[in-house]
Amino acid sequence: MWTNMKTMYEYGIGNTPMMAVELANDNKLFIKQEKYNFLNSIKARTAYYIVKDLNTEEVNGGDESTSGNLGFALRYFLDDMGVDFLCLVDESISKEKLEKLKKHHIDYRVVKRIENLDYRSSRIKVAKELQDSGKYFWSNQYDNRNCMLAHYETTGPEIWEQCKGDIDICFCPVGTGGTITGIAKFLKEKNTNIEIIGIEPMGSTIFGGTDGEYINAGTGLRGPSGLIEKYIDYIDGYYQINDLESVRCCKGLKKEYGLELGISSAMTYAAVLDYSHKEKNKSIVMIAPDGMDSYISVLEDKKYAGDGLKDNEKLIFEQL
Ligand code: PMP
Q1: Cα angle at 270 between 198 and 267, to 5 degrees?
Q2: d(C-alpha 92, C-alpha 113), whole Å
Q3: Does residue 120 have its Cβ closer than 6 Å to ligand 1?
Q4: Long-range CB contacts (< 8 A, 24+ apart) of 295-299?
Q5: What is the pTM of this model?
Q6: Is the CB of 64 under 6 A from ligand 1?
Q7: Would you say the CB of residue 200 lies under 6 angstroms from ligand 1?
Q8: Can you tell me the distance from the alpha carbon of 297 to that of 235, in angstroms, rounded to the nearest whole number?
Q9: How far is the CA of 173 from the centre of ligand 1 (A)?
């Protein structure tokens, strides 16, 4: 076990600020800003929870399939434990995230997309093969209960405290599903009336729809993860948001509130705005997993400068 382990809060993880913003129709939005975690993303919580229960006598090499945020955080804690780490990324990783891995001398491997598989499924296939080789332990964030527990035991209670229990609905971006399932389980146990809404990029099929391409902001998957399948009853509905809408909301958040949030936060905000136009007097929480600095190249990409979206391409909302 990890003998010199500090508490999560001693590492500077958790207790992230909640910013309140007034929206249309007397709706109030609370933005949980996870970029203020140690290591700059919500994934510090997840990595800490994955690592805290590892048996270092049995594990001599870790590896992870990741969009960058989790890999960065896992490597930090594994280093503290004296365990080697290999980070599996794919070709859709942002330039900034790859630079960060290089700058911090993190051992990484870029997994090429395998025919008939999406990026993440290709990475997962390689992760499984490495684990089967007997030389690696795969932390499997898609089906690791600790990834849910990180948010059930920390993010959920923080949200409840910060909003003093005054919550109607919570919007959360979804990739592996660890964040939404942990928060949902905690909030629903406090008050079954709180609605939980998952947000995925259009083209991701965690909740349904048709597979397609989308920019990688740590969200989306082809089909539901093991965690989502297990805890699907806690989720009341979902939005699917077009990339262009997400990028536009990212720029909008900065312009309107001076908030420099990442693409998955902006995607979530797009769903919040749609909801807020239809409802009134609601207390809305949204999870903002990281900051804008990892996505500058995406924001500057001319592909996302236009505004030629048709209305039905902007977003899809479904009740589960
Ligand atoms: N946004 C970002 C930026 C992320 O890195 C992640 C984690 N991959 C998520 C959202 C989704 O979180 P989860 O994997 O817990 O569903």
Answers
A1: 60
A2: 10
A3: no
A4: 295/94, 295/96, 295/217, 295/250, 295/262, 295/263, 296/96, 297/94, 297/95, 297/96, 298/94, 298/215, 298/217, 298/247, 298/263, 299/247, 299/250, 299/251
A5: 0.92
A6: no
A7: no
A8: 33
A9: 7
pLDDT tens for each residue of 284-300: 999 999 999 989 888 88
- The verdict on the CB of residue 224 being under 6 Å from ligand 1 is no
Per-residue pLDDT of 52-109, as tens digits, reads 888 666 665 666 656 678 888 888 888 888 888 898 888 877 788 888 889 888 889 9
What amino acid is encoded at 174 in this protein?
V
d(CA 248, CA 263): 9
| Number of continuous H segments (helices) and E segments (strands) in the chain | 12, 11
Q: Percent of the chain at pLDDT above 90?
A: 59
3-state SS class at 93: coil
Residue 100: CB within 6 Å of ligand 1? no
Using DSSP's 3-state secondary structure scheme, residue 242 falls into coil
CB 118 within 8 A of CB 216: no
Mutation choice for ligand 1 from 33, 39, 43, CB with most ligand atoms inside 8 A: 43
